[in-house]
Amino acid sequence: MIKLNFGCGPFHLDGWTNVDYQNKWEPAPDLHFNVQNPEYPWEKNSVDFIYASHLLSLFWESDILDILRQWHSILKPGGVLRIVEPNFEWFLDQYFKKSETGKVVFESSVLKTKRDLDDVRRSGKQFYTPAHQFQWDYNRWGHKFLFDSETLEAFLRKGVGFSGVKHCAINLSPHKGLNNIDRQRSSGGELFVEAVK
Q: Is-contact 194 81, C-beta < 8 A?
């Protein structure tokens, strides 16, 4: 069985081939590979599962569709792609919850961890509006594209040709082997989607 964890960073999955193009991670990925490379080392119709968390949003739209087409081509018929991405709908919901005074209230919702808050403090950045804070926070991770559930599903079905697209809960899947693999601690702000070839 071939299971690929693309864009793994330091988050390795046991029994998977953990793939990332950067050399800076500890532990190091099993394979250094850029998903934008047009020549994949896996044969067409050979992969059972692909997992990608917070990876596609690092690319522009045309690149995302090219990457998804590559993944579709290497998946076996019936193979499953599980994608986790920031959820644009959730961010909009947080934005419209801003206080009546217009003060930034993202700090407790978007900046989820102590590391996030420390990054803000170290930057010395002053945020003038919630949108200003959102742009800084989203872009500091290198994100270029935002998905809502409808857009991600359209990319998978219409843009690439996946047949079954299902929205899932964190760490839950109808496919054995895809449960309990998400690295997020909660589902706040993320989309969890599976697509079957």
A: yes
Residue-number span of the structural domain to which 99 is assigned:
90-139
**What gap in Å lies between CA 82 and CA 34, rounded to an integer?**
18
Q: Give the count of beta carbons closer than 10 Å to the beta carbon of residue 127.
A: 17
> Which amino acid, residue 183?
R
pLDDT tens figures, 6-27:
999 999 999 999 999 988 889 9
Query: Does residue 65 sit in the same domain as residue 46?
Result: yes
pLDDT tens for each residue of 23-53: 888 999 999 999 999 999 999 999 999 999 9
Q: Are 74 and 42 in contact (CB under 8 A)?
A: yes
What is the number of domains present in the chain? 2
Residues 167 and 193 sit within 8 Å (Cβ to Cβ): yes
Residues 63 and 153 in one domain: yes
Predicted TM-score (pTM) of the model is 0.85
Amino acid at 131: A
Return the CATH number at 25: 3.40.50.150
d(CA 147, CA 53): 13
Kindly indicate the confidence band of residue 114, based on its pLDDT and cuts at 50, 70 and 90.
low
